[in-house]
Amino acid sequence: MKSVLRRLGLDGRSVVTAVPYLWLLLFFLIPFVIVLKISFSTSQIAMPPYEPLLHWAGDKVLQIKLNLGNFAFLVEDNLYWKAYLNSIWVASVSTFFCLLLGYPIAYAIARSNPSARNILMLLIVLPFWTSFLLRVYAWIGILKNNGLLNNFLIWIGAIDQPIQMLQTDFAVYIGIVYSYLPFMILPLYANLEKMDLTLLEAAADLGCRPWQGFMKITLPLSLPGVRAGCLLVFIPAVGEFVIPSLLGDPGMLMIGKVLWTEFFNNRDWPVASAVAIVLLLFLVVPMMYFQRAQDAEAGGVHR
Amino acid sequence: MNQGRNLFRTLVLILGFAFLYIPIVSLIVYSFNSSRLVTVWGGFSTKWYGALLQNDQILNAAFLSLKIAAISATLAVVLGTLAGLVLARFGPFKGRTLLSGLTTAPLVMPEVITGLSLLLLFVTMEQVIGWPAGRGMTTIVISHITLTMAFVTVVVQSRLSQMDDSLEEAAMDLGARPHKVFFLITLPIIAPALMSGWLLAFTLSLDDLVITSFVAGPGSSTLPMVIFSKVRLGVSPDINALATILVAIVAVGVAITGIMMARQQKQRERDAQMALAANQAMIESVKKG
To answer: Are A183 and A233 contacting, i.e. CB atoms less than 8 angstroms apart?
Structure first.
């Protein structure tokens, strides 16, 4: 075995590199090339439901049929770009509220007793270990017209008629903030916990008030954590499907839902592929940003 | 001043944890409700658990999901460990940036995109090489490995980059071959990270709905797919019972891991003390001699 490998010019090191590399190339990178290819094809009623791009027309003449119609369709029908803009808007608002809620929590944990920190962080990640789907489902019971929250508000006398909360944008924001909050807190906590607290002492000695110390030292130093947390929430939230379909208004336009409908209900694979390609174009810059931050965080190149 | 800050901290933590845990607690409480209307209390009952145990559709789906999760978590740990090792230990090489990009992208990629692209890959592969024939467990497992190995890679990579590599270097200096160093030194040290990577991969696989829906075939409905189709029609108490069982399993699992880790920590402290004592004795003997 060893000699065979050596004869092929392969040492252990290149085999170790090649195995995960080839897996990811085959099952992660190449699929995108295929999506791109199918986004240029025409849909037809067959299995698979699209026409091939390349086909032999008569003798040794290879025809390429590129159909730009799917992309033109996305531009012409304003349903699609409304869905893109609305998804980006919903994801931005949710990311903002995640940060607003997650920062104080991460801060409070990072400044607790060292012995309490690990337990508190465990409690933050614990919900993440239980089913995401079921945690979203729990909010249906809370937000319904005769659900927990409305009953509670009526009981304390704040309202006398139940408010429609389920199937509104508000419910979708709650759902996203709730589900993605641990993703915001984790990188923020990792950053805040590492911070050198003597900097704050030095600032205090020089007459800085605690609030100024926070604004001038803690906040700027925690920006890498803020950035990582925001990207970790924003990027997947743009394409979110489960939360808007369970908690949102059925007519709410989110691009993840549109893609799902094109694929499963309309069985139009080429248009679904075009929707995916355009969504990817929107997300490629934040993703590259995230990858750089992640690689730096994970230690980058060793030695 | 300090007291005010402590009060603020406590308040933030109470509100934060209330937000995170009230939905889960409400799921559990209403699973013991005898009324079919999930939010109207009709007395204590465990009948929904009984109903759940008789629901073959849910039981079959749960069994399939567990099988898929166990297989894909195991393979994801193997592949993710290799990728993490390459990224943390092999230094710069041509194509490293692409590999690191390919391992971080699945972490944030919207699942509808990953699901669609994997399905189109499987359809194309079937046309070209005839494998995988149709869609079902195989395609789901491949997809879950691809998704979850990214998480394992992150865990392993960050563990390796925190780890002191002087032990590995010492073994190399003493003539151990690289694979021997890996299996005798590196692997035992990062074993806890591999364990948490496996659990993470297992949970993610067990929980995945979107990617699975794209790549599943007829007759391979996983638990999240069955739950989703039920939940879409509204709340139903047997789903609450199912959620409670899952929460209980997680709580027990976490408690066991926590106890094991605490024990290991104690063991490590004892070892460190013994090493220190041995060191001290050696210094003494050198001084005497």
So the answer is: yes
- Are A24 and B102 inside 8 Å of each other by CB? yes
Give the C-alpha separation, B151 to B148, whole Å: 5
Instruction: Evaluate whether residue B266 is within a structural domain.
Output: no
Give the span between the Cα atoms of B32 and A269, in whole angstroms. Answer: 44
Q: What is the mean pLDDT of residues B61-87?
A: 95
- Distance, CA of A164 to CA of A292 (rounded, Å): 43
Q: What is the pLDDT of residues B240-267, one digit of tens each?
A: 898 898 888 878 887 887 787 778 777 7
**Residue-wise pLDDT tens digits, B201-218:** 998 999 999 999 999 988
| B60 belongs to a structural domain | yes
State both tokens at A265: 């209900």
Binary contact (A141, B27; C-beta < 8 A): yes
Closest by CA to B93, choosing from A5, A29, A21, is: A21
Cα separation, A65 vs A43, whole angstroms: 12
Task: Please give the average per-residue pLDDT across A68-80, as a whole number.
Answer: 84
| B33 pLDDT above the threshold of 90 | no
**Residue B276 distance to chain A (closest CA, Å):** 24
The candidate with the shortest Cα–Cα distance to B82, out of B194, B222, B167, is B194
- Number of Cβ within 10 Å of residue B161's Cβ equals 18
pLDDT band at residue B236 under the 50/70/90 scheme = confident
Domain assignment present for residue B269? The answer is no
Residue of B nearest to A134 (CA): B243
Question: B84-132 pLDDT, tens per residue?
Answer: 999 988 888 888 889 988 988 888 899 999 999 999 999 999 888 888 8
Q: Which helix (H) or strand (E) holds A165?
A: none
Q: What is the Cβ-side half-sphere exposure of residue A34, based on CA atoms within 13 angstroms? A: 24
The candidate with the shortest Cα–Cα distance to A255, out of A76, A78, A80, A35, is A80
Give the distance from residue A135's alpha carbon to the nearest chain B alpha carbon, in angstroms: 7
Q: What is the DSSP letter of A251?
A: T
Determine whether B30 is exposed, middle or buried from the number of CB atoms within 10 Å of its CB (0-12, 13-18, 19+): buried
pLDDT at position A236 is 92
Which CATH code fits A78-297? 1.10.3720.10
> Of A227-231, A282-286, B254-258, where does mean pLDDT reach its minimum?
B254-258
Question: What CATH number should be reported for the domain holding residue B208?
Answer: 1.10.3720.10
Structure token digits, residue B268: 């490590």
Cβ atoms of A263 and B214 closer than 8 Å: yes
Cα separation, B266 vs B249, in Å, equals 26
Q: Contact A119/B254 with Cβ under 8 angstroms?
A: no
Q: Does B242 lie at the interface with A, CB-CB under 8 angstroms?
A: yes
